[in-house]
Amino acid sequence: MANVRYTMIKGTSLGFWALLGLFGAFIAAGLGATYYMEHNGHWVTGMNNAVVWGMPHVFAVFLIVAASGALNVSSIATVFGRAMYKPLGRLSNVLAITLLIGGLSVLVLDLGRPDRLIVAMTKYNFKSIFAWNIILYNGFLLVVGIYLWTLMEKKMNRFSKAAGTAAFIWRLVLTTGTGSIFGFLVARQGYDAAIMAPMFIIMSFAYGLAFYLVFLIASYKLTGRELGDAVVNRLKNLLGVFVAAALYFVAVHHLTNLYITEHHGFEAFILRGDNGGGIYSRVFWIDQVLLGSIVPMIILFTALSKSRAMVVAASVLVILGGLAQMYVTIVGGQAYPMTLFPGWEISSSFGDGQTATYSPSKWEVMLGMAGIAITLAATTFAIKVLPLLPESLADKVADPHHKAG
After folding, report:
1. Which of 234, 291, 338, 352 is at a distance of 20 to 30 A from 160, taking alpha carbons?
2. From the CA atom positions of the chain, what is the Rg in Å?
3. Rounded to 5 degrees, what are φ and ψ at 358?
4. Do the beta carbons of residue 95 and residue 145 sit within 8 Å?
């Protein structure tokens, strides 16, 4: 493999600043939505006493899970010694950091009182998975930052293997913690499953790599740099495998629930739309399974993937399917009524025993979109000020097995 030369992008064109301006507009809209929700109270959102995690949490958890997966490309090179992935490592680290920042920004801005975060960061209840996650998120930023330093500073290259291994282990623990938020909630029939943690890990592989592919192809196209088929083909095949594995875990999750009597009601709620679960059933089958998993696999594993546009389309579908997965998991899990007394029917003026209603407000969507915009703006700015992208990823540069024709 030829020597790889990393350079910053020029970033002086009108198109570059227009792109940053577009991201800035989404961020400004998100900040405006935050101010409106903070000023008027959360009653202006679609959230209520039953569904307390709404659309902002769908975006936030998705971005946090994707952050862990975006680091995969770098880990494959450093931890598993795959030479082709080495030139892709710097961008992988930066995208992991910016995705996490985007997700955490949405969470913090949704608190209503962002200043209360200081309490959460200084008063720890280690019986709560949320307290552990604060340590995991901050630690992830630190470990990945150090890992990036070892990749970019020649004198530190000898530590990249150790730093990469530490970051790889940390990301697995982080995603385990995120999945465990739901897996440990035994009161909800939609959560309460040990498979949540490994399922979130495999989902992170797909979501993070989908983000990475879209950004890589777009940045090389827009900057006129050469991106060979060898890199794209390797990444798109890997994405197809990850999507298939994530769909397999989803199937196992639901099949396991069908074996357990106490979960039958929730499975009928999600899979058949019983008991008012129609919207969640449609999102599950159409958006998550069909458009977010099966269609991308058809594209990625057939001749359709010879087109870069189709690879990008498949990646975008995986991202949208991931958001659908989070919507079904987070919102659907809360909308289904809790079983307070098994075997008994419950009713009260507080809506106990009834399916909760939830309609996301535009303010929530604006805040969630701002999280994605923060990620894209920060990554775009990073490749302008730091040498993160190889000047060329042509096959003769990136592919160690390339033979000149």
Report:
1. 234
2. 22
3. -155, 125
4. no
Residue-wise pLDDT tens digits, 27-53:
999 999 999 998 888 888 989 888 999
| 201-223 residue pLDDT tens | 999 999 999 999 999 999 999 99
Compute how many other C-beta atoms are within 10 angstroms of the C-beta atom of residue 97.
Answer: 22
Find the largest Cα–Cα distance for the chain.
76
Measured distance CA(177)–CA(200) in Å, rounded: 9
Identify the residue whose tokens are 């499975």: 267
pLDDT-derived band at 82 (thresholds 50, 70, 90) equals: confident
Residues, the chain, total? Answer: 405
Residues contacting residue 362 through CB under 8 Å, at least 6 positions apart: 33
Nearest one of 190, 355, 199 to 260, comparing CA atoms: 190
Give the C-alpha separation, 298 to 295, whole Å. 5
What percent helix, strand, coil does the chain show, rounded to 5? 75, 0, 25
